[in-house]
Amino acid sequence: MKVLGQIAFLLLLGGIWCQNNRNAKAGARTTKKSGGNQGRDVGQSLPVTDVTPGSTGSTRGAGGSAESGQDSAAGARAAGQQTDDMRLHFLKNTQVTCNDGTPAGFYLKEFRGSRRWLLFLEGGFCCYSKETCDSRYQNIPRLMSSSVWPQTKRGSGILSSQAEENPHWHNANIVFIPYCSSDVWSGIGPAPTPPPKPRQGREKERDRNTNATEYTFMGSLIIREVIKDLIPKGIKQAKVVMLSGTSAGGIGVLLNIERVASQLEQLGAEAQVRGLVDSGWFLESKLQGPVNCPETVSCSLEHPIKIGLRLWNGVVPDRCRQLYKRGEEWQCFFGHKLYSTLTSPLFVVQWLYDEEQLRGENIYMGGQSMSEEQWQYLQNLGLEFKNSLRDVTGVFAASCISHTAITKSNWITFQVRGTSLSRALQCWDRSLEATRNNRTPAKGCPFHLVDTCLSPQCNPTCPPLVDQATQQELTLLQMLVAMGLDLQKLGLDPQGGADSLASMVSNGG
């Protein structure tokens, strides 16, 4: 018996050693695999922070699962780490995908007991031809594929769950919907692209490597499916659903808010659906550009939209579409033409000298020379925006050269006439609640705020201007000089600093 016991003990030790050896090898394989794709996430900075170590190397394809990310989050909670992260969920409907066929999805940070939901549509321009889509797929893959998405993100600005950074919406259920459809959230796909031309040599190799011979565009369908997947999370019991977005995501709010309201109503929800559009209120081009704008360069918004609508199988709100003849539906992408047809309440955040609007006119602040004609356009842009926003009930429009505001960590510092952006949104919310409950809105709580000074950067709370080459902060006058303008010829005092511009207008900051 003693001998048999010793034999059993030796067998047990051998089994433990073998299992440990297998685990060590498996761990080594996992580490090697997860480290292989680091650095693939390129492009513009996100309004949220990736927080899962090594998560940008995710190689999940179609039919993948977010369970591993959920396990990681559970481990973080067990270890006492912060849990302010939004976790990735892929859509249950696997037929609704990103451009490259990988599963679309959303990030969710639940706030138990809250009946307020903030849904955010990410921005990122669009692609509108095979050439521009191929380039986008190669250079900014996260905007066309979920294969490089991290498992968790942490929001900033209005997406933050910290009360100091986000005083009014931190305790809402926050949903970040990544932009991977490249269609300004308008596509209802599938809309196959024309057959690719025969390619030789390197071009043929590029197509094989990127798998970019055709794409699907399902932006509007992605929003619909996200709401379906949020039903078990409690969105049917919501009191308020705020559909928000920046840049192309802001246009996505304009295009989809009525569909979202209708979808929730059909589900039996009693929520009031509201829209928050940040830097998505564009104007038509004013400067004379090329007659046939090349598809491979940045143009004014009209050109990509006109071409893209056919490629995306894009849709616009019915009431706006009825205003225009067939082929002119692209005009509904412009907020000042669409706004009067919407029934859902809308709040517009818009810099009066929007950088993307300027880029559409080939004006790159701090990046290249500027002509006197372009300076004149820049000066007049503030008045153009102000006039277009005259009939908008809820608006925050500061005389600044910038792009996007609500996802910036310092968004609560921006002010117009002494009222901060976050305060203006809170006033708007309270006014809607009062109206909904047949009460008189409180006085002294403004939410239609447009700067009275109409000169670039005349608002003292503007984000600073940055030289693209040196990354140094510059005053507007310093930047104009760097861009080759003669200040004296323009009637500006080179030594006057901010006072030189402020003297041209009344103080409205």
Automatic annotation (TrEMBL):
Basic and acidic residues: compositionally biased ranges: 200-209
BP GO terms, sorted: negative regulation of canonical Wnt signaling pathway
Signal peptide: 1-18
Residue ranges of the region described as Disordered: 27-81, 188-210
InterPro entries the UniProt entry points to: PAE/NOTUM
Pfam family, one: PAE
Molecular function per GO: palmitoleyl hydrolase activity
Keyword Signal among UniProt keywords: yes
Keyword set includes Transport: no
Keywords: Signal
Family: Belongs to the pectinacetylesterase family. Notum subfamily.
Protein name in UniProt: Notum, palmitoleoyl-protein carboxylesterase
